[in-house]
Amino acid sequence: MNPEHAKGILTIYRLGIDEGNATFRDHRPHLAEFDAAKLPRHRFVALDDSGEVLGWIAAAPVSDRCVHAVVVEHSVYVHPAARGRRIGGALLRRLITSTEAAGVWTIQCGVFPGNTASLALHARAGFRVVGTGERVGRHHGVWRDVVLIERRSPAI
Ligand SMILES: CC(C)(COP(=O)(O)OP(=O)(O)OC[C@H]1O[C@@H](n2cnc3c(N)ncnc32)[C@H](O)[C@@H]1OP(=O)(O)O)[C@@H](O)C(=O)NCCC(=O)NCCS
């Protein structure tokens, strides 16, 4: 992930937010905020032949109490026009490789129950459902449950 990918990343992020099934977030993402939140060594993009961003993945520490992040939460977004081509799966594998190499033992993520694409993607990559939080937050005026999923590394 390089500075020239920022525009494509933020566009895909915004498209995913606007669809309303990926995140509680409802304001436009900003690069500075993204940059401050995401761990530099665990952020990746998928590019087409001309260098356009098709999707991205990035992890953030779940807690600021540990200097060295050993449990992270991630976000993965693929451009609507590029979905179903296993780009999300490839990004997830890349993140699993980088985090395991860095000693991270758990990757976790909260998913809306209706986000079948994300639940299928993560199940394929070895994530398990920890449980469902009920009415975790309001999203556009509606209380929404969140499925917590995790992948505990078998290698660490
Ligand atoms: C979730 C998302 C990243 C998946 O990306 P993708 O590149 O389309 O996923 P892939 O093509 O790699 O699919 C991975 C697996 O999930 C399955 N899958 C993908 N979309 C699916 C859907 N809509 N319904 C059922 N299964 C689906 C695929 O069958 C695939 O399994 P396979 O390799 O055995 O065929 C993409 O839909 C997206 O960006 N959504 C909006 C943002 C979002 O919700 N992010 C997750 C927040 S928790």
UniProtKB/TrEMBL annotation:
Entry keyword set: Acyltransferase, Transferase
Domain N-acetyltransferase: 1-153
Pfam families assigned to the protein according to its UniProt record, in alphabetical order: Acetyltransf_1 (PF00583)
Record's protein name: L-amino acid N-acyltransferase YncA
